């Protein structure tokens, strides 16, 4: 069996849905289990409707229009999802009645995006000759804890899901299963958190011992750099779980490590594929990755970073100093990423300003504090960085040639990650030059 997960854009317009149908039709011999998200924007529209309901305005019509338009492009009647719209209205009315959108009611409302999506997608697949059947994941056994908005599946889900899916696949059906949602033991609908459909696909794939989990997106797998910045960026054929996890911080193009962990732990490969190029192998992520990989594997960058530097002569030989500083950040809920220390100072990066002012004010009681804005984080993922000095040497040689100063280096925390900061204005030039130099020849 193979899990094929399609995100919001793949079920978001008629052309893309037709493309999805073609991709699934060509995979029938692999016994696919399809997982889909809500059509793009629908989850946001549902959450907006919930906010309006709280203010007394119950109006699911924007979602109804969006869904009706999609269905009518395939000559399907909206009555197909009539029950879901009744349920959605009831949940919105419950919010209006108490003038409060509890996490539980928000999950109930948000769940309808995926519940509608599986019914529409399965009906469209059937019209195109695929024996598809829709399923709400909770009816197949996706049981979760009651942590609404970010629920975690219960251990017993695996056996239930395996049996639930097998019952359909053994009848020759192609199940089309909701991503994102589950249900508590006492029957209340939950969501696994925004973007949770990838996680659903991995949990399902692990439960049914799929031979592979395909995450279909609209990019050609995981790229060696952002192709908008480095035009010679290429697809990385094989990535280890650790490499994927290091890259995940840099954005939505790479799967969140939590998402794929259930699959990787069971030795099930997760493959990122491009709906626009279905025959391209994309990127496969496995526990081990490419054991023969050498040198630089990928570059990633993130702009709009700021750094905080605390200099304190009192830090000299003082125990507990770092703990004090990070306790201040923690209390102000400032997320710290890179950290670098010297004998009398600490520098770290933060990528948003919420809470920063308060934290900085407090940090001034420990020493001189400087905040530097307009920086960018550049991260080099390379195999064996701790044994092989060449990738580092080349990175600094390229930066020197380009006359781009680097600051706040971090290396050694992971054997595969070298991160540094450059001025934001030079970030793209740095990535472009590094990619050109590091990928044009074996390093
Ligand atoms: N529809 C959900 C969201 O927008 C889940 C997902 O797309 O993965 O967050
Ligand atoms: Mg997603």
- Structural class, please? alpha/beta
Helix content: 25-40%
Shape: globular
What's the CATH class of the largest domain, please?
Answer: Alpha Beta
Bound small molecules, which ones?
aspartic acid, magnesium ion
Order of strands in the sheet with most strands: 3-4-2-1-7-9-10-8
Taken in chain order, the helices and strands follow as EHEHHHHEHHEEEHEEHHEEEHEEHEHEEH
Q: How confident overall, as mean pLDDT?
A: 93
Rounded radius of gyration (Å): 24 Å
CATH architecture of the largest domain: 3-Layer(aba) Sandwich
Largest sheet: 8 strands, mixed
Total number of strands = 16
Proportion of beta-strand residues = 15-25%
| Low-pLDDT runs | none
Distance between the termini: 39 Å
Give the domain tally.
Answer: 2
- CATH topology term of the largest domain: Carbamate kinase
Put simply, the count of helices is 14
| Annotated CATH homologous superfamily of the largest domain | Acetylglutamate kinase-like
What would you note in describing this structure?
This protein has helices spanning 14-25, 42-54, 61-72, 82-98, 103-127, 137-140, 157-169, 197-207, 241-248, 257-265, 321-331, 356-363, 390-401, 427-439; strands at 2-6, 32-36, 132-135, 174-178, 181-183, 189-191, 212-217, 238-240, 270-274, 283-286, 296-311, 336-341, 345-350, 368-382, 407-411, 417-423. With 443 residues, it is of the alpha/beta class. The protein has two domains: 2-217, Carbamate kinase (3-Layer(aba) Sandwich), CATH 3.40.1160; 296-438, 2-Layer Sandwich (VC0802-like). The strands form three sheets. Strands 3-4-2-1-7-9-10-8 form an eight-stranded mixed beta sheet, sandwiched between helices. Strands 12-13-11-14-16-15 form a six-stranded antiparallel beta sheet, sandwiched between helices. Strands 5-6 form a two-stranded antiparallel sheet. Helix 2 runs antiparallel to helix 5 (103-127), helix 7 (157-169) packs across helix 8 and helix 11 (321-331) packs antiparallel against helix 12 (356-363). The longest helix has 25 residues, at 103-127. The chain is globular. The two termini are 39 Å apart. 43% of the residues are buried. The mean pLDDT is 93. It binds aspartic acid and magnesium ion. Aspartic acid (ASP) binds next to loops.
């Amino acid at each position: 069996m193979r899990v094929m997960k399609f995100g919001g854009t793949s079920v978001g317009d008629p052309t893309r849905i037709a493309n999805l149908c073609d991709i699934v039709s060509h995979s029938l011999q692999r016994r696919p289990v399809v997982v889909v998200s809500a059509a793009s924007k629908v989850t946001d529209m549902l959450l907006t409707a919930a906010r309006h309901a709280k203010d007394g305005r119950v109006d699911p019509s924007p979602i109804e229009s969006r869904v009706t338009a999609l269905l009518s492009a395939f000559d399907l009647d909206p009555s197909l999802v009539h029950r879901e719209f009744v349920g959605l209205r009831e949940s919105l009315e419950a919010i209006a009645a108490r003038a409060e959108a509890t996490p539980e009611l928000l999950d109930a409302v948000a769940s309808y995006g995926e519940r509608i999506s599986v019914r529409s997608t399965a009906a469209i697949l059937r019209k195109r000759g695929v024996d598809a059947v829709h399923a709400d994941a909770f009816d197949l056994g996706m049981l979760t804890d009651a942590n609404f908005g970010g629920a975690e599946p219960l251990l017993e889900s695996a056996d239930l899901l395996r049996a639930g899916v097998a019952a359909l696949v053994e009848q020759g059906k192609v199940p089309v299963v909701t991503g994102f949602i589950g249900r508590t033991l006492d029957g209340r609908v939950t969501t696994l958190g925004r973007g949770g459909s990838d996680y659903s696909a991995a949990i399902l794939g692990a439960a049914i011992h799929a031979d592979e989990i395909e995450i279909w997106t609209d990019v050609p797998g995981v790229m060696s750099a952002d192709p908008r910045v480095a035009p010679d960026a290429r697809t990385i054929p094989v990535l280890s779980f650790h490499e994927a996890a290091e890259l995940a911080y840099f954005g939505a193009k790479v799967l969140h490590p939590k998402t794929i962990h259930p699959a990787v732990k069971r030795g099930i490969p997760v493959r990122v594929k491009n709906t626009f190029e279905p025959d391209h192998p994309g990127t496969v992520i496995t526990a081990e990755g490419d054991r023969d990989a050498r040198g630089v594997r990928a570059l990633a960058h993130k702009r709009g970073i700021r750094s905080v530097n605390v200099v304190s002569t009192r830090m000299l030989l003082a125990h507990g100093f770092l703990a004090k500083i990070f306790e201040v950040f923690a209390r102000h809920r400032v997320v710290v990423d890179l950290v670098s220390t010297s004998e009398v100072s600490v520098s770290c990066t933060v990528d948003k300003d919420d809470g920063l002012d308060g934290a900085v004010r407090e940090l001034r009681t420990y020493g001189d504090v400087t905040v530097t804005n307009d920086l960018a984080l550049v991260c080099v993922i390379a195999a064996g960085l701790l044994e092989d000095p060449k990738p580092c040497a080349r990175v600094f040689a390229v930066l020197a040639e380009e006359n781009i100063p680097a600051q706040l280096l971090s290396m050694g925390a992971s054997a595969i990650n070298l991160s540094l900061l450059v001025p934001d204005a030079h970030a793209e030039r740095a990535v472009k030059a590094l990619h050109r130099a590091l990928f044009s020849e074996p390093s």
